[in-house]
Predict the 3D structure of the following.
Amino acid sequence: MLAYTPHKPAIHYLNPVAWVVVELCDGSSGSQIYAAFKELDKGRIGEPELKEAFESAMDQLVDGGLVDVTRPIRPLDGREVNP
């Protein structure tokens, strides 16, 4: 799959894992996205390999400017809020 970033003109090649991960990036936390990714795998790949593939894909997406990682804001009552 190819992705284009207009803010920093470039075309990026996404391998199948990165494509799945970018589809899962919906504003959820990294652990929630990883849980959804793990659920899609259904135990076919061992945990260390799956986690490595996920982290590699996230690194590719962040480095390429295709996804942003933001720090959640924690209000006084402890609930998480994403701006």
Observations:
- Helices lie at 16-24, 30-41, 47-63.
- The radius of gyration is 14 Å.
- Residues 15-63 form one domain.
- The first strand starts at residue 2 and ends at 5.
